[in-house]
Design brief:
alpha+beta; six-stranded antiparallel β-sheet; two-stranded antiparallel ribbon; 6 helices; about 25% strand
Amino acid sequence: MLARILAGMALAAGLFVLAGWAGALIPRNNDADSAAGPRADGVEVMVETNGIHTAIVMPMVTQDVDWRQDFPGVALARGGEMPTHVSIGWGEREVFLDTPTWGDLKIGTALRIAFAGGPSVMRVASYVRPAPGPDHRPVVISRAGYRRLARSIRASLPDAGGGPRQPLRGVERGDTYYAALGHYTLANSCNTWTGERLADAGLPMGRWTPFAGGVMRWIEPPATPGP
């Protein structure tokens, strides 16, 4: 009986992985012109990944969006310099707030997330002139697309009632965390959230992107500089 249960779990996991990759291959917004625009009239954002989690890196302030109004804490100086960009990602509350490394992930927490999911939080970090790279891929979107992106991100936050948002204590020093809307599951993961937000901005993206690679396959890495 135990062997059958384990075999069934392995089969379910394999089918989930296959479905996740298949979903990421099905395109939406496949017309790049829907979001891309001339660099002079567009906004360059980055999609970042650590191989498991993805987030969106954006200018701290543009003529259309000022993230300091949403997250005042990100405007603090880092190493004597004022941050130029903000990174915003969404994820499972206990993992973001109480799990410093994947090695610290409790078995009970992993099982709960796998079978029931959990509440979500938003992780906000600030950067000073982040450099493009394989794990920080830049893409230019139109100003209209960027405004849609900002609205979509803000729609994942509960109403602050006109006052400042109260940060939560998390595991990464220098980052801030805030209560977010939505229930985290394996099917509705941090990468699903990133893919949905980028699609809302008009960028080409897969229909369902539960894995980091499913998001990043739609964002071209920066060109390697010549010798």
